[in-house]
């Protein structure tokens, strides 16, 4: 069974939906064996290389969980949702890099992510149970933990 990987280096700090869509037209996105689109090319490359080395010995489910966390963080959040969250933060009179009410913005993060994941044509290939949080009082970084997933047919 062929697996493929996507090292998304088109832009800094966020995945490129057009690139992922083109890749999904070529191969089954549910067979994606690794994915990274971090804030720098070096971080992306290091992440995907480490994942590829680890996946040799890891169960497919464990590797796919990590891949989905990267898709949620790098592609969904950094590449799409973060812009909307930052706009809301600024409209609310706050600075995205120094949140006064992080719990409020964490709730908005969850709502925006859920809406994006439900409608996104790439992520619809899975039913994903996950949690998200802002580990620091800023929107620059978010944390995504996938607790369960299954492929949609």
Describe the structure.
By secondary structure, the chain is α+β, with helices and mostly antiparallel strands. It contains 4 helices and 4 strands, in the order E-H-E-H-H-H-E-E. It has a two-stranded parallel sheet with strand order 1-2. Helix 3 (60-91) crosses helix 4. The protein is globular. The two termini are 18 Å apart. The mean pLDDT is 87.
Summed over residues and divided by their number, the pLDDT gives a mean of 87
Name the shape in a single word: globular
Helical fraction: 40-55%
Structure annotation, total helices: 4
Structural class: alpha+beta
Query: Uncertain regions: pLDDT < 50 for 5+ in a row?
Result: none
Q: State the assembly state of the protein chains.
A: single chain
Question: Roughly what fraction of the amino acids lie in strands?
Answer: 15-25%
How much is the radius of gyration in Å? Answer: 15 Å
The strands making up the biggest β-sheet line up spatially as: 1-2
Instruction: Please outline the major beta sheet.
Output: 2 strands, parallel
User: Could you give the distance between the termini?
Assistant: 18 Å
SSE arrangement, N to C: EHEHHHEE
Q: How many β-strand stretches? A: 4
Protein topology:
Blueprint: E1 4-7, H1 17-26, E2 32-36, H2 41-55, H3 60-91, H4 102-119, E3 126-133, E4 143-151
Parallel strand pairs: 1-2
Antiparallel strand pairs: 3-4
């Amino acid at each position: 069974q062929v697996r493929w990987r996507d090292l998304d280096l088109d832009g800094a700090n966020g995945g490129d939906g057009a690139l992922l869509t083109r890749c999904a037209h070529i191969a089954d996105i549910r067979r994606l064996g690794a994915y990274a689109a971090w804030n720098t090319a070096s971080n992306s490359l290091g992440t995907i290389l480490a994942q590829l080395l680890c996946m040799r010995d890891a169960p497919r489910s464990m590797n796919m969980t990590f891949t989905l966390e990267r898709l949620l963080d790098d592609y969904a959040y950094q590449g799409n949702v973060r812009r909307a969250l930052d706009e809301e933060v600024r409209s609310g009179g706050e600075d995205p890099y120094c949140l006064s009410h992080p719990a409020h913005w964490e709730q908005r993060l969850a709502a925006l992510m859920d809406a994006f994941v439900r409608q996104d044509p790439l992520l619809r290939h899975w039913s994903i149970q996950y949690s998200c949080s802002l580990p620091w009082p800023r929107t620059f970084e978010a944390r995504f933990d996938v607790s369960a997933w299954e492929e949609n047919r």
